[in-house]
């Protein structure tokens, strides 16, 4: 009986040690194996956003992550980051274009505005270079040239469309916007250029349009569209702690106009954005290895 009393505590302690060891092992593995996690990446239908989001999906999945792309408009995208339904989004234009969103969500979303991946963006109204109009101030006197005052735009809730409404007011333009989407706008632009007809569109740079067509921005003397900006990224709160490796990758990421233009062209020409992004990644291994610290 005394021997049994001595054996039972020993067995009990041994079982506790085994369980504790198992718990430590699984906890350590789960905490360190970041690559087993799934990343929900949000994007809106801007050409460069589609391109870089698909590019990072390819890169991160090559590194062992699972990346889901979630297409939405700007407003819902910010709300989804706030509610932790999305993990990150790769495009924030500051200090001007996305300022309203920044002011609304700066306490609920992590803006990595000091980590820019593209510098020197431009927003504005644009026309084919053969159109004999060079300034926004000349638009009213040429209203009949542009379908009696029609501006082909993109998503109704986008910052660019909001700024365009401000332009209409500031310049007292006798024009109205026709909201659609980025792809629909560029399709209409290409069709008009093919026919050598005038067309007025909202546009931004970087964009593959400038490599494909001879297009010019109209001068904006009142600077309603603002000065050149930089593009950074944003994430849900806590993302950088959950994904330190991915955070380091994205913070190292930098593209110039030529690199981003070539990526956007490949994505546009391919049968799918995923296929175009994969081709670009395959052809730019040295650059990507720099971002990944390899």
Features:
294 residues, alpha/beta, D-Maltodextrin-Binding Protein, domain 2, 2 domains, 8-stranded mixed sheet, disordered N terminus, carnitine transmembrane transporter activity
Question: What's the helix and strand layout?
Answer:
Blueprint: H1 2-32, E1 38-43, H2 47-62, E2 66-71, H3 74-82, E3 88-94, H4 99-105, E4 109-112, E5 118-128, E6 150-152, H5 159-170, E7 176-178, H6 182-194, E8 201-205, H7 209-212, E9 215-217, E10 229-236, H8 239-242, H9 244-252, H10 257-269, H11 273-283, H12 285-292
Parallel strand pairs: 1-2, 1-3, 6-7
Antiparallel strand pairs: 3-10, 4-10, 5-8, 5-9, 5-10
Helix pairs in contact: 2-10, 2-11, 10-11
Describe the model:
The chain is an alpha/beta fold and about 290 residues long. The chain has helices at about 1-30, 45-60, 75-80, 100-105, 160-170, 180-195, 210, 240, 245-250, 255-270, 275-285, 285-290; strands at about 40-45, 65-70, 90-95, 110, 120-130, 150, 175-180, 200-205, 215, 230-235. The chain has two domains: about 35-120 and about 230-290, 3-Layer(aba) Sandwich (D-Maltodextrin-Binding Protein, domain 2); about 120-215, D-Maltodextrin-Binding Protein, domain 2. It contains twelve helices and ten strands. Strands 1, 2, 3, 4, 5, 8, 9 and 10 form an eight-stranded mixed beta sheet that branches. The model is unreliable at about 1-30 (pLDDT under 50). This is Glycine/betaine ABC transporter. It comes from Pontibacillus chungwhensis BH030062.
Rounded mean pLDDT is 89
Strand percent estimate: 15-25%
* Class of secondary structure makeup: alpha/beta
How many domains, as an integer? 2
N to C succession of SSEs: HEHEHEHEEEHEHEHEEHHHHH
* Low-confidence spans: 1-32
Classified by CATH, the class of the largest domain is Alpha Beta
The level of helicity is 40-55%
- Number of helix segments? 12
**Span of the ends, CA to CA:** 65 Å
The description of the largest β-sheet is: 8 strands, mixed
């Amino acid at each position: 009986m005394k021997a049994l009393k001595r054996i039972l505590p020993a067995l009990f302690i041994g079982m506790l040690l085994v369980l504790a060891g198992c718990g430590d092992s699984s906890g350590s593995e789960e905490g360190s194996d970041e690559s087993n996690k799934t990343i929900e990446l949000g994007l809106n239908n801007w050409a460069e956003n589609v391109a870089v989001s698909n590019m990072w999906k390819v890169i991160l999945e090559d590194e062992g992550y699972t990346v889901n792309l979630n297409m939405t408009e700007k407003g819902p995208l910010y709300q989804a980051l706030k509610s932790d339904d999305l993990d990150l989004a790769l495009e924030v234009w500051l200090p001007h274009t996305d300022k309203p969103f920044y002011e609304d969500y700066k306490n609920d979303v992590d803006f990595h505005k000091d980590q820019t991946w593209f510098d020197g963006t431009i927003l504005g109204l644009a026309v084919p270079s053969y159109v004999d109009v060079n300034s926004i101030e000349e638009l009213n006197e040429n209203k009949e040239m542009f379908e009696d005052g029609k501006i082909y735009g993109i998503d109704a809730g986008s910052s660019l469309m909001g700024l365009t409404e401000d332009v209409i007011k500031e310049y007292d333009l006798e024009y109205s916007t026709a909201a659609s989407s980025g792809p629909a706008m560029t399709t209409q632009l290409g069709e008009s250029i093919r026919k050598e007809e005038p067309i007025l569109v909202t546009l931004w740079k970087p964009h593959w349009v400038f490599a494909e067509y001879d297009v010019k921005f109209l001068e904006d003397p009142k600077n309603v569209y603002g000065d050149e900006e930089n593009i950074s990224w944003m994430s849900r709160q806590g993302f950088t702690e959950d994904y330190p490796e991915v955070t380091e990758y994205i913070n190292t990421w930098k593209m110039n106009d030529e690199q981003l233009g070539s990526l956007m062209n490949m994505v546009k020409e391919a049968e799918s954005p995923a296929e175009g992004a994969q081709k670009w990644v395959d052809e730019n291994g040295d650059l990507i290895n720099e971002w990944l610290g390899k």
